Amino acid sequence: MRACNLCRRGEAFFLRPYSGEHLCERCFCRSIDRKVRATISKYKMLEPDDNVAVAVSGGKDSVSLLHMMEKIERTYAKAVLSAIIINEGIKGYRNEAARIAIENCDKLHVDYTMVSFRDLYGYTLDEIVRVTSDSKLAPCSYCGILRRRALNAAAREAKADKIATAHNLDDETQTYFINIVHGDPLRMFRVKPVLATIQPGFVQRIKPLCEVPEREVALYAYVKRINFQTVPCPYAGGALRNDVRNMLNRLEEKHPGVKYTVFRSVEKLRNSLEKISSKAEIRRCEICGEPTTGKTCQACQILKDLSIM
């Protein structure tokens, strides 16, 4: 039996490859909580009186984040915590995820706002995928664009100051590589722990899990006995992100800590990238009023294309 490197008393159950630490369950969970708090402090994500809405999908990352944020926010008397649940309309997948999300909100006594693609756009994601089967865009592309707009609308309805999303370290490093593969490396500077408030009506996004590896978030949920959906989205398999995820996981297995190295490298480059990148003019969409760089936002363009198909 190997003792925990931190408390020297508990039995170690987890080896953190990039640090060499052997940790017991208690010290492991404490280390994740500390890392999240340190990340929030480092990037100045929260104010004591913030109204924070957590985007909860029902998966391990978002549900774990909800539990962590509830623990953090309860220490601030003026802070308000709520949840946003988006039902995209994916048969055999999203109903279960929404149920699990609601169960966790009820358990923590967190109010939630639920919105659906059907109510907002008149289509479910399943219907959009069927109609656009010949499109070059993958289902995840449609979902991402429409989901971002839905989150912003729901957060305004909840009178939230900030939206906390559960993007973990793996998500961030994957996005960096995806931008390179798509030929848009300067876009990397926009992928950061705290997204700027670009104009009134846009609710600021924060990413408290951005420095926590996906594997450790999953283990945290398991140790804490947090209920989350284990079934993967049926549309995720064919996405480019899935291939990038596999590549990075193979690199991490051979070279522990490489994901942190990539994350830190982009952090160092971000200031320079922001200086040489031309800043797009932000305006309001002529149709829906949401922030956009063009006359119409991507969501409205998608809905316009759907109406003529």
Write up this protein:
It contains eleven helices and nine strands. It is an alpha/beta fold and 309 residues long. The chain has two domains: 42 residues, no CATH class; 255 residues, HUPs (Rossmann fold), CATH 3.40.50.620. The model has no long low-confidence stretch (mean pLDDT 91). Strand 6, helix 7 and strand 7 form a beta-alpha-beta unit. A five-stranded parallel sheet has the order 5-4-3-6-7, with helices on both faces.
Descriptive labels:
309 residues; Rossmann fold; 2 domains; five-stranded parallel sheet; two-stranded antiparallel ribbon; 47% helix
Task: Let me know the CATH homologous superfamily of the largest domain.
Answer: HUPs
Provide the CATH topology of the largest domain: Rossmann fold
N-C termini distance: 64 Å
- The helix-strand sequence is EEHEHEHEHHHEHEHHHEEH
Class of the largest domain, according to the CATH hierarchy? Alpha Beta
So how many helices? 11
| Biggest sheet layout | 5 strands, parallel
Return the domain count. Answer: 2
Indicate the proportion of strand residues: 5-15%
**Residue windows where pLDDT falls under 50 for at least 5 positions:** none
Q: Helical proportion?
A: 40-55%
The number of E-state strands comes to 9
Q: Judging by the overall fold, what is the CATH architecture of the largest domain?
A: 3-Layer(aba) Sandwich
Derived structural class: alpha/beta
Q: Tell me, rounded to a whole number, the average pLDDT.
A: 91
The 3D shape can be described as globular
Rg, rounded, reads 20 Å
